[in-house]
Automatic annotation (TrEMBL):
GO terms for molecular function: ATP binding; ATP-dependent diacylglycerol kinase activity; metal ion binding. Keywords: ATP-binding, Cell inner membrane, Cell membrane, Kinase, Lipid biosynthesis, Lipid metabolism, Magnesium, Membrane, Metal-binding, Nucleotide-binding, Phospholipid biosynthesis, Phospholipid metabolism, Transferase, Transmembrane, Transmembrane helix. It catalyses: a 1,2-diacyl-sn-glycerol + ATP = a 1,2-diacyl-sn-glycero-3-phosphate + ADP + H(+). It comes from Caenimonas koreensis DSM 17982. A divalent metal cation binds at residues 39, 87. This is Diacylglycerol kinase.
């Protein structure tokens, strides 16, 4: 017969429901943002967001434009956090070089590049529409 300890869930978060689950999940999210702040690239993107998010409200002429401008900035930050999570998981497995580890890290980096290109393209289009049209 299994002991009561062996029947306990590995993650106590799975037992929570309602507001308690949301409250604890918010705490985990804040811890993730704090961990992200320790990464130079995320910190640079967050500082840029402090400028770009208010600028989105000034530059956008409709709620759709504001949403696109602000959304692309937030997408860059989210993809950067995911890239950092991938890199952290790979580094936890081991520090030795492996082709699959390199591939995973390279694809995470490529995802960040694509999100940055999307953001730059949307902002360039909005700026040209506003000042060159």
């Amino acid at each position: 017969m299994p002991s009561p300890d062996s029947l306990a869930p590995v993650n106590p978060q799975k037992l929570r429901s309602g507001f308690a689950r949301v409250w604890h999940a918010a705490g985990f999210s804040l811890a993730g943002l704090k961990a992200g702040w320790g990464e130079t690239a995320f910190r640079q993107e967050a500082i840029a967001a402090i400028v770009l998010l208010p600028a989105a409200f000034w530059l956008g002429r409709s709620w759709v434009e504001v949403a696109l401008l602000a959304g692309t900035v937030l997408i860059v930050m989210a993809v950067e956090l995911l890239n950092t999570a991938i890199e952290t998981c790979i580094d936890r497995i081991g520090p030795e070089w492996h082709a699959l580890s390199k591939r995973a890290k390279d694809m995470g980096s490529a995802a960040v590049l694509l999100s940055l290109l999307l953001c730059a393209g949307v902002w360039a289009a909005a700026l040209s529409q506003r000042f060159l049209a």
